[in-house]
Amino acid sequence: xxxxxxxxxxxxxxxxxxxxxxxxxxxxxxxxxxxxxxxxxxxxxxxxxxxxxxxxxxxxxxxxxxxxxxxxxxxxxxxxxxxxxxxxxxxxxxxxxxxxxxxxxxxxxxxxxxxxxxxxxxxxxxxxxxxxxxxxxxxxxxxxxxxxxxxxxxxxxxxxxxxxxxxxxxxxxxxxxxxxxxxxxxxxxxxxxxxxxxxxxxxxxxx
Length: 207
Hints:
Elements: E1 25-29, H1 54-57, E2 63-66, E3 74-88, E4 94-102, E5 108-117, E6 136-149, E7 154-160, E8 186-191, E9 199-204
Antiparallel strand pairs: 1-8, 2-7, 3-6, 3-8, 3-9, 4-5, 4-7
Protein backbone atom coordinates (compact mmCIF):
# COMPACT_ATOMS: atom_id res chain seq x y z
CA UNK A 1 0.00 0.00 0.00
CA UNK A 2 0.94 3.66 -0.29
CA UNK A 3 2.70 5.82 2.25
CA UNK A 4 2.80 9.57 2.85
CA UNK A 5 6.41 9.71 4.04
CA UNK A 6 9.48 7.48 3.99
CA UNK A 7 10.72 5.57 6.99
CA UNK A 8 8.90 3.68 9.70
CA UNK A 9 6.86 6.80 10.49
CA UNK A 10 4.95 6.41 7.24
CA UNK A 11 1.94 4.21 6.60
CA UNK A 12 3.49 1.78 4.11
CA UNK A 13 1.62 -1.53 4.12
CA UNK A 14 2.75 -4.97 2.98
CA UNK A 15 -0.34 -6.95 1.99
CA UNK A 16 -1.35 -10.12 0.15
CA UNK A 17 -3.72 -8.25 -2.19
CA UNK A 18 -2.57 -6.91 -5.58
CA UNK A 19 -1.83 -3.20 -5.80
CA UNK A 20 -4.75 -0.89 -6.58
CA UNK A 21 -4.85 2.85 -7.34
CA UNK A 22 -2.01 3.95 -5.06
CA UNK A 23 0.36 6.93 -5.24
CA UNK A 24 4.07 6.31 -5.77
CA UNK A 25 6.65 6.70 -2.98
CA UNK A 26 9.75 8.87 -3.27
CA UNK A 27 13.04 9.44 -1.50
CA UNK A 28 16.45 11.03 -2.12
CA UNK A 29 19.52 8.81 -2.22
CA UNK A 30 22.72 10.70 -1.38
CA UNK A 31 25.95 8.73 -1.96
CA UNK A 32 27.61 10.73 0.83
CA UNK A 33 25.03 9.36 3.31
CA UNK A 34 24.65 5.64 2.51
CA UNK A 35 22.96 3.12 4.78
CA UNK A 36 25.75 1.54 6.82
CA UNK A 37 24.20 -1.45 8.57
CA UNK A 38 27.21 -3.65 7.72
CA UNK A 39 30.02 -1.09 8.15
CA UNK A 40 32.88 -2.57 10.20
CA UNK A 41 31.00 -5.87 10.62
CA UNK A 42 32.72 -9.21 10.06
CA UNK A 43 30.51 -10.85 7.43
CA UNK A 44 31.88 -14.29 8.32
CA UNK A 45 30.17 -13.85 11.68
CA UNK A 46 27.14 -12.11 10.27
CA UNK A 47 24.59 -13.61 12.65
CA UNK A 48 26.35 -11.94 15.58
CA UNK A 49 25.96 -8.55 13.91
CA UNK A 50 22.26 -8.61 13.04
CA UNK A 51 21.30 -5.51 14.96
CA UNK A 52 17.83 -4.05 15.40
CA UNK A 53 17.06 -2.31 12.11
CA UNK A 54 14.70 0.28 13.57
CA UNK A 55 17.32 3.08 13.47
CA UNK A 56 17.75 2.47 9.72
CA UNK A 57 13.99 2.47 9.24
CA UNK A 58 13.74 5.98 10.69
CA UNK A 59 15.80 7.42 7.83
CA UNK A 60 14.11 9.51 5.15
CA UNK A 61 15.80 7.47 2.40
CA UNK A 62 14.21 4.15 3.40
CA UNK A 63 10.72 3.13 2.33
CA UNK A 64 9.08 0.78 4.85
CA UNK A 65 6.15 -1.55 4.12
CA UNK A 66 4.76 -3.66 6.98
CA UNK A 67 2.17 -6.44 7.02
CA UNK A 68 -0.62 -6.94 9.49
CA UNK A 69 0.13 -9.10 12.52
CA UNK A 70 0.34 -12.75 11.45
CA UNK A 71 -2.36 -15.00 12.91
CA UNK A 72 -0.27 -18.16 12.31
CA UNK A 73 3.36 -19.16 11.83
CA UNK A 74 4.62 -18.40 8.31
CA UNK A 75 7.45 -20.63 7.10
CA UNK A 76 9.37 -19.11 4.20
CA UNK A 77 11.58 -21.75 2.59
CA UNK A 78 13.16 -21.29 -0.83
CA UNK A 79 14.09 -18.48 -3.20
CA UNK A 80 13.10 -14.86 -2.55
CA UNK A 81 12.84 -11.94 -4.93
CA UNK A 82 11.34 -8.49 -5.30
CA UNK A 83 9.88 -6.93 -8.43
CA UNK A 84 9.93 -3.14 -8.42
CA UNK A 85 8.67 -0.49 -10.81
CA UNK A 86 11.03 2.44 -10.34
CA UNK A 87 12.33 5.64 -11.83
CA UNK A 88 15.28 7.86 -10.97
CA UNK A 89 16.57 11.33 -11.74
CA UNK A 90 20.11 9.95 -12.11
CA UNK A 91 22.11 8.45 -14.99
CA UNK A 92 22.47 5.26 -12.93
CA UNK A 93 21.60 4.18 -9.38
CA UNK A 94 20.92 1.18 -7.16
CA UNK A 95 17.79 -0.16 -5.51
CA UNK A 96 18.01 -2.35 -2.41
CA UNK A 97 15.38 -4.51 -0.73
CA UNK A 98 15.48 -6.10 2.72
CA UNK A 99 13.00 -8.65 4.07
CA UNK A 100 12.52 -8.18 7.82
CA UNK A 101 10.84 -9.99 10.73
CA UNK A 102 9.18 -7.53 13.12
CA UNK A 103 8.84 -8.88 16.66
CA UNK A 104 5.88 -7.95 18.90
CA UNK A 105 8.11 -5.48 20.80
CA UNK A 106 9.05 -3.77 17.51
CA UNK A 107 12.53 -5.28 17.11
CA UNK A 108 13.25 -5.48 13.37
CA UNK A 109 15.35 -8.54 12.45
CA UNK A 110 16.88 -9.03 9.00
CA UNK A 111 15.82 -12.17 7.14
CA UNK A 112 17.48 -11.57 3.76
CA UNK A 113 18.45 -8.71 1.43
CA UNK A 114 19.55 -7.91 -2.12
CA UNK A 115 20.51 -5.14 -4.53
CA UNK A 116 20.08 -4.29 -8.21
CA UNK A 117 22.20 -1.80 -10.15
CA UNK A 118 19.85 -0.14 -12.60
CA UNK A 119 22.15 -0.16 -15.62
CA UNK A 120 22.47 -3.93 -15.18
CA UNK A 121 18.71 -4.37 -14.84
CA UNK A 122 18.63 -6.92 -17.67
CA UNK A 123 20.90 -9.27 -15.73
CA UNK A 124 23.65 -9.41 -18.35
CA UNK A 125 27.28 -8.42 -18.24
CA UNK A 126 26.80 -5.44 -20.55
CA UNK A 127 25.29 -2.27 -19.08
CA UNK A 128 22.20 -0.66 -20.59
CA UNK A 129 21.73 3.10 -20.58
CA UNK A 130 19.42 4.58 -17.95
CA UNK A 131 17.04 7.33 -19.03
CA UNK A 132 16.30 9.68 -16.11
CA UNK A 133 12.57 9.86 -15.40
CA UNK A 134 11.72 6.69 -17.30
CA UNK A 135 9.95 3.88 -15.43
CA UNK A 136 11.70 0.52 -15.36
CA UNK A 137 10.63 -2.87 -14.04
CA UNK A 138 13.53 -4.48 -12.20
CA UNK A 139 14.07 -7.69 -10.30
CA UNK A 140 16.01 -7.78 -7.04
CA UNK A 141 17.36 -11.19 -6.04
CA UNK A 142 17.10 -11.75 -2.28
CA UNK A 143 18.76 -15.14 -2.62
CA UNK A 144 16.96 -17.75 -0.47
CA UNK A 145 16.15 -18.63 3.12
CA UNK A 146 14.41 -21.06 5.43
CA UNK A 147 12.87 -18.99 8.18
CA UNK A 148 9.71 -19.03 10.29
CA UNK A 149 8.02 -15.69 10.95
CA UNK A 150 6.15 -16.53 14.14
CA UNK A 151 2.50 -15.91 14.88
CA UNK A 152 2.11 -12.44 16.40
CA UNK A 153 5.03 -11.08 14.34
CA UNK A 154 4.81 -8.97 11.19
CA UNK A 155 6.63 -9.19 7.86
CA UNK A 156 8.31 -6.03 6.55
CA UNK A 157 10.01 -4.91 3.34
CA UNK A 158 12.51 -2.05 3.27
CA UNK A 159 13.39 -0.37 -0.03
CA UNK A 160 16.33 1.98 -0.38
CA UNK A 161 19.38 2.57 -2.58
CA UNK A 162 22.48 1.65 -0.56
CA UNK A 163 23.88 -0.99 1.77
CA UNK A 164 27.46 0.08 2.54
CA UNK A 165 29.97 -1.43 2.88
CA UNK A 166 28.47 -4.79 2.01
CA UNK A 167 27.84 -3.37 -1.46
CA UNK A 168 29.74 -0.55 -3.12
CA UNK A 169 27.91 2.78 -3.21
CA UNK A 170 26.49 3.83 -6.54
CA UNK A 171 27.60 7.43 -7.14
CA UNK A 172 24.60 7.94 -9.47
CA UNK A 173 26.66 9.30 -12.38
CA UNK A 174 26.86 6.26 -14.67
CA UNK A 175 30.67 6.19 -14.45
CA UNK A 176 32.44 2.85 -14.42
CA UNK A 177 32.38 1.16 -11.02
CA UNK A 178 35.46 1.97 -8.97
CA UNK A 179 36.57 4.81 -11.23
CA UNK A 180 34.06 7.58 -10.64
CA UNK A 181 34.89 10.54 -8.42
CA UNK A 182 31.90 12.80 -8.98
CA UNK A 183 28.71 12.17 -7.00
CA UNK A 184 25.08 13.09 -7.61
CA UNK A 185 21.93 12.92 -5.49
CA UNK A 186 19.29 10.63 -7.00
CA UNK A 187 15.57 11.35 -6.61
CA UNK A 188 14.01 7.88 -6.49
CA UNK A 189 10.41 6.82 -7.15
CA UNK A 190 8.88 3.43 -6.42
CA UNK A 191 5.49 2.73 -8.00
CA UNK A 192 2.92 0.25 -6.68
CA UNK A 193 -0.35 0.52 -8.54
CA UNK A 194 -2.39 -1.76 -10.75
CA UNK A 195 -0.42 -0.85 -13.89
CA UNK A 196 3.00 -0.74 -12.22
CA UNK A 197 2.92 -3.19 -9.30
CA UNK A 198 5.86 -3.68 -6.95
CA UNK A 199 5.81 -6.89 -4.93
CA UNK A 200 7.72 -9.63 -3.12
CA UNK A 201 7.79 -13.24 -4.30
CA UNK A 202 8.39 -15.67 -1.43
CA UNK A 203 8.26 -19.46 -1.17
CA UNK A 204 5.82 -20.42 1.58
CA UNK A 205 5.96 -23.93 3.03
CA UNK A 206 2.73 -25.72 3.87
CA UNK A 207 2.96 -26.46 7.59
